């Protein structure tokens, strides 16, 4: 129901109506016809049209004075007592204006004019004006509340997108620093592996530039990017590294936020293999089932693992802190992130409902 309401409010038809206040005209015409129907028995056609016009015009003036002057000047500023006296005075004045208008017109009999200043007529006129003012004020408050909610949601959306862009901007320099540092080290050693490393880095940068700015990318593209990173690290570590990657299920038809999985891989190399001179391993598993994605990555801990695990940021460096925030923003209540650690292994399990 809410989705249908939002669709109508955002539609071109609604915007055109509100732009030219056509909905106001439509409602007042309906109200005018109501009074024509009420007053038509017993008097001539021209007279009941004129009388209806006087009643509706007077109520229009009071209603718009209320919602466009009294509302912003008093009610929005929480001056409730001042607003109460102001609206009572306005309704009283409107009642006297309506009585005075009928006294000057010849649309009612002289006998009927005698009752225009009676308590009964004044009270009934005031009640009619009050009802109309209350209804129009209610509509104004509903619209005011809806606009406030809409602006709040738009602001939240802008803030969310801004924060996501900020988090991405933190991920990229962090990754580039690690990769360029590795290439620099191999270049100093005049290693034949440096060109391959540069080529892999080029593929990764291409992904960051063209797909990284998108809201969603194909899961296949994201995994291709992840593989390039793993292959880059494989070239860099050589025989020190045992890499295993397993992908099960359909990835072509699935979409995911770009660069969401790479921080977990970065963390594995940063706190796992790079701290250990002995052989280590990184095992990656990706499984899809309908709209569910299960991503698992495990890495060996260094021989001095107990000391490394105590270092600040082992389970929550810049990359992991960022990815936690992105998951909360992009997949609220649709993901589960688990960190598991033993004496010899650190493991991350991530489950996401991609829809």
What order do the helices and strands come in, and which of them pair?
Elements: H1 2-9, H2 12-19, H3 22-39, H4 45-75, H5 80-104, H6 110-113, H7 119-188, H8 194-210, E1 217-218, H9 219-237, E2 241-248, E3 255-256, H10 262-271, E4 280-289, E5 292-300, H11 305-308, H12 318-330, E6 335-341, E7 345-353
Parallel strand pairs: 2-4
Antiparallel strand pairs: 1-3, 4-5, 5-7, 6-7
How would you characterize this protein structure?
The structure is a single chain. The protein is of the alpha+beta class and 355 residues long. It folds into 2 domains: 153 residues, no CATH class; 162 residues, Histidine kinase-like ATPase, C-terminal domain (Heat Shock Protein 90, 2-Layer Sandwich), CATH 3.30.565. Helices cover 64% and strands 13% of the residues. It has 12 helices and 7 strands. Strands 2-4-5-7-6 form a 5-stranded mixed beta sheet, covered by helices on one side. A two-stranded antiparallel ribbon has the order 1-3. Helix 3 packs across helix 4 and helix 8 runs antiparallel to helix 9. It is rod-shaped. About 3% of the residues have low confidence.
